Amino acid sequence: MNSCNECGRHQCDCEVMMLDQYGTEIVPGEEYILNNFDEVIHKDNVIRYLIEDGSHQLKTR
């Protein structure tokens, strides 16, 4: 599982967590999706990720 670049933990209180190669920022209270490559994707970006890489199989956390 990818982790926060600021503190190294997956779940943390840091203001911004960059979790994947697309630069997804984790914002408290928002919903995220974890795909089969353990990349965290914001629910609003799912369409973009599916277009960029059709091999991504998305699943809810």
UniProtKB/TrEMBL annotation:
Keyword NAD appears in the UniProt entry: no
* Domain of life according to the entry: Bacteria
| The keyword Kinase appears for this protein | yes
Molecular function (GO) terms listed? kinase activity
What is the protein named? Transcriptional regulator/sugar kinase
Lineage, please?
A: Bacteria, Bacillati, Bacillota, Bacilli, Bacillales
Q: Which SUPFAM superfamilies match?
A: YqaI-like
Give UniProt keywords alphabetically. Answer: Kinase, Transferase
InterPro entries in alphabetical order: Uncharacterised_Yqai, YqaI_dom_sf
